[in-house]
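Fig. S4 source data, part A: sequence.
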Amino acid sequence: YGYECPISYLAKKMADWSQIFTQRAGMRCMGVSMTFISIDEDDGAQLYNVDPAGYFAGFFACSTGNKENEAQNFLEKKAKSKKFEELTEEETIQMAIAALQSILNSEVRANEIELAMVSTKNPEF
């Protein structure tokens, strides 16, 4: 209707829709986790995660997948030592690679991963 949809509203609507289908047996058509990322003029950078059961929350950093809990624990420990807002782009990239190495218990090589960086200074993807 002529204006942009706030990311918090979009995440809530997708969570509500997922939760409705969770209430009926065999009807979880949205059996995926969704991650929404947004940069807007009013609220700045935002990150929301929606799980298949319909739970959603905003995060500074999040993970999704098989070892989601291990990655979340790693990120929470790192957040205690330094606030994510204070990280440089290089430190953010190093933390992401360190999280991968920690949960996979192996060395991650440059030719094995792809990384994209979007920031408020450079919002292009």
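Fig. S4 source data, part B ends here. The beta strands are 34-40, 44-50, 56-58.
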